[in-house]
Amino acid sequence: MVCAPGGRALKGASADAPGASSSKVLPLAMLAEAVAALKAAGKRVVHCRGRFDLLNTGHIHRLEAARKEGDALVVTVVPDAHIQGDGPAAVFDEALRARTVAALPAVNHVAIEQHPAAQEAIRLIQPDVCVDGADGDPTPPKPVEAGGTSHSPEAISFLRDFRREWTPERVIDSLASLKRLKALVVGDTVIDEYHFVRPYGMPLKAPIIAAQFLTGEAHAGGVLAVANHLAGLVGEVHLVTNLGAQDSREAFIRQHLRSNVAPRFFLHPDAPTTIKRRYLRKFLVQKLFEVSFFNDQPLPRDLEVEVLRHVSGVIENYDLVVVADFGQGFVTRNMIEVLCRQSRFLAVNAQMNSINLGYHVITRYPRADYVCIDEEETRLACRDRTSPVPELLEQLQGELDCRLITVTRGHHGSLTYLPGRGMVTVPVLSREVVDTIGAGDAYLAMTAPCACAGLPPELIGFIGNAAGAIAVRILGNQQPVAPEILFDLIRNLLR
What is the pTM of this model? Predict the structure, then answer.
């Protein structure tokens, strides 16, 4: 082994870990094939991930315990590229860390990950069970479903009752039937930028945060994310939205829409395309601050007339209209009147955010068939800070005369109200959170076609919370909730 002064191993040093079996180390795609073969042979496959830098007895004990959760144990190692700038640098490089883990008798196969979040590797290899906390924590490992859920007592009780009526096949068949639907999606475009930095602290001469830029990425957010989520469930999506004539980002947006999303963009002459640029400490993905580029004034009259003419001309062709209204000027009073009057089935989220706080509430809409908002948006619409949420749901349902209303409540889960059926409470189905941004959009998009199809409220709440469990493990809107991942999670939750 090649060492730096003081005994520190140099990254990239070529050395074999004692007893390492390099034949166990596979590319990630080959690991997925190996897992598929094990499962085809009737084996229960357990997955564990971590850095495994300076392998210690804590790691070994946890991996041995994880192995007991199934018939085979596969391990993925966090790559060097995603440790860089994310806390202390690794002592050993990724290849050496992988070969060291592979030397353990409890481990069947090892691969080096390619993405910063675990969800990508889990989606690819599809293990039966995941075991969290692999990096040397002395507490016993906690087995969770492959979709990433860690069940609370409330979730265990809910799933026990839910399984009595709903099998995985029945739920998935219900979702597959939504492919017949055609959806029109209307709302504000947002591009979410994530700039990862390493903060150094406050300089001596100014009360600011000084930081080193590390890397950045951009996601198709706002109504674009809603359209992408929805396009995984329904057959056809027509997107109507606004871009700014100043720096439209149209090429980027087109590249980041699903193939069955057909967009119609309207250019605001005096605005940029809305960009929300977030600066985050890369370690633990902690947000520091945000800078937004936008013009939230209503559309110029001539542009509004053009948009209304287009919407009025196409709306009758769609079974479902989904409005993701972020309060940034595109959805005007006149457009709301057209949407409410002409939609066959109207699903609405009027989102409260830092730009529109206090000025943008769901009661802007005189009617809707399905309303999906969060608890704070509910309280603001009702101008009520203290009453129980179920009372507020009944109040809003009466005001909007909607068929179905859902309130998402963060770690308290969701409440769905259907007059005549009462309230359905669905607890959170995941406790692992990477980023909550976009989770509400995923909930709206995955439940709106369910509501349009007349699925029962307990199933709608379950599907929404399952989609949310996946969405909170994805950084921002890095990727839409894929139907195959949702189906896998449903199978794991209901088996």
Answer: 0.72
